[in-house]
# Entry
Amino acid sequence: MDHVLNIADSSIFTPHVYPASWSEEGALRQIVSLWLVTNLGAVLLFLGCGALNFYYVFDHKLMMHPLFLKNQVQQEIELSIISIFWMSFPTVAIFFWEVQGNSKLFDNISESSLGWPGVFLSIAGFLFFTDMCIYWIHRFLHHKSTYKHLHKQHHIFKIPTPFASHAFHPLDGFLQSLPYHIYPFIFPLHKAVYLSLFVFVNIWTISIHDGGLPHPRPPDIHPSALMGKGPHDHIRKLMAEAAHTQ
# Structure
């Protein structure tokens, strides 16, 4: 995040926001700046990509489903914005620790012992590590001792839209984002690759809440959608019944 912070400082914060007496190297200023950048960036990414997905990918016929809540899109957006706000505090603490040089992020390919192959391996390692961790975190969140306190809030949206992607209890959302943050403290990773992957996983999170099933999935992952009992099947049945009664 140091590159993002430097760009924000040089183009916005230093010339237009902060007094000249407040040094760019000051810890408090860096924390405040990171908090502003994190919140603004996350909200813009969520609303921008969410809107594009909602209007151009999401099947709006799903909103006819009886389990689709009244004012659901508004509820999803409101919960997501609140969640992003509260998640930003521990997230900024991690970003600040990273900006202080405590991670294994690096600037130049030459700093990787394996060069470009090492960079590509790090991408595969990042995806494998984070996906594995999130799988177990997700299972923990579905455990009966934690589900009703944390993850149930996300699953009130039985027929989710892309705007449900960040609609979590803040602690739930942060726990599921934690693997992305801790990876560069354990394994070497190029800074540009890290930022790109961070944006990618946010877009991916939005895309998996659009109600579509673009690729076949094993029955143990999405059984209802593959056995004629998914949301789309229900809508097709409703439309067929409506057409039959006309």
In short: The longest strand covers residues 105-106. Residues 39 and 85 are 6 Å apart (CA to CA). Confidence is low (pLDDT under 50) at residues 213-221. The radius of gyration is 21 Å.
